[in-house]
Amino acid sequence: MSYYLGIDIGTSGTKTLLIDQSGKVLAEADAGYPMEQPRPGWTQQDPEDWWNATVKTVRAVMRQSKVDKNDVKAIGLSGQMHGSVFLDAQDNVIRPALLWNDQRTAVQCESITSAAGSREELIKLVANPALTGFQAPKILWLRDNEKRNFDKLAKVLLPKDDIRRRLTGEYVSEVSDASGTLLLDVQARNWSTELLGRLQLDRSLLPDVVESEDVTGKLTAAAAKQLGLTTQCQVVGGAGDCAAGAIGNGIVRSGLLSTSIGTSGVMFVHSDEPSIDAAGRLHTFCHAVRGKWHMMGVNLTSGGSLQWWVENVIQGLAGVPAAKSFEAATAEAAGVPAGSGSLVFLPYLNGERTPHADPHARGAFVGMNLTHDRAAMTRSVMEGITFALRDSLAIIESMGVPVRQIRASGGGSKNKLWRQMQADVFGKKITTLKVEQGPAYGVALLAAVGDGAYKSIEQACKATIEVAEETKPDAKAKATYNELFPIYRDLYGNLKDSMHRLAELSS
Ligand SMILES: Nc1ncnc2c1ncn2[C@@H]1O[C@H](COP(=O)(O)OP(=O)(O)O)[C@@H](O)[C@H]1O
Ligand SMILES: O=C(CO)[C@@H](O)[C@H](O)COP(=O)(O)O
């Protein structure tokens, strides 16, 4: 029997799992690490933490499963997208890695747009506008602000690709994650030499780019020893965590969408063609399916807003025990009718990407009155997060993209109230999988495809992924949300100026 490892370098921690060739999960392990926030809107991590978590979790699943190391044929890598690991010519990490939710690069986004000629020209080159989280503005930020570090720079890698370097000694990325650098010609599935030239960035700074199921190398002797595996173990391209999570949800053909409520929120749709949102509100990226694309809307503080509410606000007030806090808070919210008594929450606690692309957007509760209590406010937070996902769905539908099935995933979708709320807010049936394992599972499947256990990722998904539960919209709640959604949408425009002035004051 052959076995495959999936490793997901997440923001809060690394998750590793081991599957057999039928797709059955034999063991899984997690290891967490901190995220530094040296200033409001700045986020960083130490790549060494990702490596230590990788070693720890791989060793843990090998120990738990008791699988013979010679039978582990391949590894798939997934990870938080867009981050930058800056390396010197000796592969030393020059400074902490800047992350996907870092907002320090607004000035560099403007420089990139003007170097391309205009926002429209930039979208023509790389299918997307310049957004603060993406990798290219981070490279320019280093050049503009830390010249001594920039002078040492020899390579820039995405988080999971830095783990690949440590596993195989190779500098390689793959198309789905490379799409989020803003330097990939997404339609041609290769680096945009045109944009690199206009930004005066040397191609040698970037790794090679392959398809997600391609084998990128084998473990070095040192890595094999550290992980307790063999030098015959292959490492496939893998995928950025959104595409990897979508594969884990079986989103590999037209008409299928997935939502994910994790720290960030994602509305993801498969596309046979590189369809581009001319306004640049959705990201158009290569899918981890060979020769296919996807579009997605991303909310920066999705489940992260509930986490903020439960940890920073409610816990302080009520002393809810940490382990049970999400369940306890949402159980209380379930007693409040849909619409939270006309209270609307805007989940823009760290700026927002889709649809506003605004690092200075801020959160708000609007419509409070004397009847509102903690439970209503919790519910309103959940509804605001779900409205933010509906914003992305509305854009997808306005582009004429077919929507046949929506599969809900991520920590938030494990909650029954939130699954019902998604059905009611979207006005559509929501399905969930029998076993949802997220991005690590998606890349373990890519590893199985790379090793030849399946002909294609579509075939692997068909053989392994089973839809279990269906949640239908409730007509009354759907009508309430249809009334509230236009108000939610108007609020950003109405409050934008005040949000910006407040963001300025807190910076
Ligand atoms: N039992 C629960 N009920 C409601 N929401 C939950 C529950 N468990 C987790 N969540 C939400 O899911 C988020 C974490 O999702 P997860 O997919 O595990 O995160 P990450 O994106 O960091 O990997 C939390 O911040 C919280 O908003
Ligand atoms: O920026 C994006 C996608 O564009 C985020 O989805 C990050 O990739 C999130 O990573 P996790 O919080 O799920 O680790």
From TrEMBL:
Transmembrane segments: none annotated. GO terms for molecular function: ATP binding; D-xylulokinase activity. It comes from the Bacteria. The keyword Kinase applies. The record marks 8 as: Important for activity. InterPro entries: ATPase_NBD, Carb_kinase_FGGY, FGGY_C, FGGY_Carb_Kinase, FGGY_N, Xylulokinase. The active site is at 241 (proton acceptor). Keywords: ATP-binding, Carbohydrate metabolism, Kinase, Nucleotide-binding, Transferase, Xylose metabolism. Residues 3-248 form the Carbohydrate kinase FGGY N-terminal domain. It is an enzyme of class 2 (transferase). Residues 258-449 form the Carbohydrate kinase FGGY C-terminal domain. It catalyses: D-xylulose + ATP = D-xylulose 5-phosphate + ADP + H(+). One of its GO terms (biological process) is xylulose catabolic process. Belongs to the FGGY kinase family. Catalyzes the phosphorylation of D-xylulose to D-xylulose 5-phosphate. This is Xylulose kinase. The gene is xylB.
